[in-house]
UniProtKB/TrEMBL annotation:
<dbReference type="Pfam" id="PF13419">
    <property type="entry name" value="HAD_2"/>
</dbReference>
<dbReference type="InterPro" id="IPR050155">
    <property type="entry name" value="HAD-like_hydrolase_sf"/>
</dbReference>
<dbReference type="InterPro" id="IPR006439">
    <property type="entry name" value="HAD-SF_hydro_IA"/>
</dbReference>
<dbReference type="InterPro" id="IPR041492">
    <property type="entry name" value="HAD_2"/>
</dbReference>
<keyword id="KW-0378">Hydrolase</keyword>
<protein>
    <submittedName>
        <fullName>HAD-IA family hydrolase</fullName>
    </submittedName>
</protein>
<dbReference type="InterPro" id="IPR023214">
    <property type="entry name" value="HAD_sf"/>
</dbReference>
<dbReference type="InterPro" id="IPR036412">
    <property type="entry name" value="HAD-like_sf"/>
</dbReference>
<dbReference type="InterPro" id="IPR023198">
    <property type="entry name" value="PGP-like_dom2"/>
</dbReference>
<dbReference type="GO" id="GO:0008967">
    <property type="term" value="F:phosphoglycolate phosphatase activity"/>
</dbReference>
<dbReference type="GO" id="GO:0005829">
    <property type="term" value="C:cytosol"/>
</dbReference>
<dbReference type="GO" id="GO:0006281">
    <property type="term" value="P:DNA repair"/>
</dbReference>
Length: 226
């Protein structure tokens, strides 16, 4: 019997390029509350955290406005999503779809998601890109403590029945790498996301991929199919 392995995927900055959507929504949220939006790099640095946690980091000088900022962000995000083509706002990065399909077809790899997105936001991405039949487990911020808490990875392991020694987390932020370390699973970073390569390595990334299509070879090095 094939010894299955599990790849747990982050979403924003790893699978989809949603940077402009996220940054624009954050800027609108702060402006709607008569506050100066944080610099773009500052906003980028918190992507991956659950929204209330991320907003708490960005609004440290205005803790009394954090809840209002969260609601304003949600409104801005959904408004932009309804106004523009989702494929433009949240396209898959090059090589993602073909690589995921190839991994599913090899009969020894299961795929899961662990994301700071809400359930509503993740449902939109699943439908937009036809990913519902590809993923064995989908974990979202609504049901778990924010990254880097290991709760989402632990849920993926429970739902799939895969041992943590046969699991790999793929993400673009130090929060993903730290979550993997806290859960006792291997971590792979990607170079095209929100955090720099040196930060990913410092947080525990075994390797950092430059192309999504490099994922199968990296998996074979870390967690060989058997």
């Amino acid at each position: 019997m094939t010894d299955l392995r599990l790849v747990i995927l982050d979403v924003d900055g790893t699978l989809i390029d949603s940077q402009d959507h996220i940054v624009s929504s954050m800027e609108v949220a702060f402006a709607a509350n008569a506050l100066t939006p944080p610099p773009r790099d500052r906003i980028r640095s918190v992507v991956g955290l659950s929204l209330p946690v991320a907003m708490g980091v960005l609004a440290t000088d205005h803790p009394d406005r954090a809840d209002a900022l969260v609601e304003a962000y949600k409104h801005a995000f959904s408004t932009l999503r309804d106004r523009f083509d989702g494929m433009v706002l949240s396209p898959l990065f090059p090589g993602v779809r073909a690589t995921l399909d190839a991994l599913v077809a090899d009969d020894c790899t299961l795929l899961a998601v662990a994301t700071g997105k809400s359930r509503r936001g993740m449902d939109h991405i699943l439908d937009l890109h036809g990913l519902r039949g590809v993923l064995a487990s989908v974990q979202v911020a609504d049901d778990h403590a924010s990254k880097p808490h290991p709760s989402m990875i632990e849920a993926c392991l429970r739902e799939t029945g895969i041992d943590r020694a046969r699991a790999v987390m793929l993400g673009d932020t130090s929060f993903d790498m730290e979550m993997a370390r806290n859960a006792g699973v291997a971590a792979l970073g990607v170079s095209w996301g929100y955090h720099p390569i040196d930060r990913l390595r410092a947080a525990g990334a075994i390797d950092v991929l430059d192309r999504f299509s490099d994922l199968p070879a990296a998996l074979d090095r870390i967690c060989p199919a058997s």
